[in-house]
Amino acid sequence: MQTPTELRARADELESRVSPVTAGPPRTDDERMWLEKATALRAEAEPLDAADRVAEK
């Protein structure tokens, strides 16, 4: 299992592959896939963060 920090770092890396919407032509299928994966990774990190906060108390 990966840590929330690792998941967010991977999400950032995927998002960095995508050019801004205002940069020109519509997004490619790959760019949409990378953004969807980044969103999923961030969603996966959230419950892990919550569990860590509960465990620290």
> Radius of gyration, rounded?
14 Å
Number of helices: 2
- How much strand? under 5%
H/E element order: HH
The computed structural class is mainly alpha
Overall strand count: 0
Shape: elongated
Q: Largest sheet, if any?
A: none
State the helical fraction. Answer: over 70%
SSE inventory with pairings:
Blueprint: H1 4-16, H2 29-56
Helix pairs in contact: 1-2
Brief overview:
The chain is an all-alpha fold and 57 residues long.
Report what the structure shows.
By secondary structure, this protein is an all-alpha fold. It has two helices and no strands. Helix 1 runs antiparallel to helix 2. The longest helix has 28 residues. The radius of gyration is 14 Å and the shape is elongated. The two termini are 22 Å apart. The model has no long low-confidence stretch (mean pLDDT 88).
Short key terms for the protein model shown above:
57 residues; mainly alpha; 2 helices
